Amino acid sequence: MHKTVTQLLLAGGLCLASLTAAGAAGPEAIPAPPPEELVLELWNPMAFPQEEAEALPDTEEKVPQLSALLAWEGLSEEQQWALAVRMEREPALLERLEQGGLSDAQLVLLALPNARTDRLDRYLAWREAHPEDSPENAVFSVNADRDLAFYSAVSETVDPAGTVVLVNKHYALPANYVPELEALGYGYGSGSLRPEAAQAFRAMADAARAEGVSLRSVSAYRSYGSQKITYNNYLKKYKRSVVDNFSARPGHSEHQTGLALDINVASSKAHFENTKAFAWLKAHCAEYGFILRYDKGKEAVTGYRFEPWHYRYVGVDIAKACMEQGLCYEEYLALLPG
User: Whole-model pTM?
Assistant: First the structure.
């Protein structure tokens, strides 16, 4: 990462309300931890919409109630406040605390807004393996599943039809999933996308054309069966370890969502990154809800080599957060409040 986790929210200025509006992706959630001095500001009632703030615990009552249980010199008042909020929402945690089932190290992790209780053991394992990492970076890395080998523990996506669905080497679509589709139409290249993505792509292509840039789809929606044929054909030529760097296994392709497409080319030999079209896309794709899905320098997180032609529709707000902060989609999701 070029930026530390601590720097990301400072640079991006993301607010909690915009993050929670994105909803759940992949297994459960969705953007990046702030600096230590700002981490707990996300738990301030002023950061929540009014109706959500009213539902938060009364900290003047809640924190003193927990103070005896949280009386550890390493926990700040802000961390205690954050834990009070979390335990109000997750009563089982308070029970564990009362029974002495939470260590100091666990409490520090749980005080982070993007920590997820069901990953607590994984956070601890990451910190043991990477003692130089801060709690913020440990949570960020595990939330992005960097502690898991690709394809080693695959889960099926909870909401395959969701616009923010996460599909990668850890989360797969059902084999029989087929989205609602709309043909891109004459002048926009080949294939179909989900209606909202198709409309956004046409608007983007029209805007680019007005500036002398041609954007056309060369590959949009692909069925599970089509991806299986494509992947198996590559296996006839290359080792699986090589193929996995540039082709998704069936069920793991974003193309099956109907939200992703390859623009103008689909080959590294074309050097699309050196074209006017690529420069235009980098500067403007987020305005239409698209992100460059597999950017350079993100290979260890996405599992794929740099693909300057592959774009994914996620909606304008999320796209701007990703592109402006230099986050790949997994990183964005890893930073959402738990």
Answer: 0.83
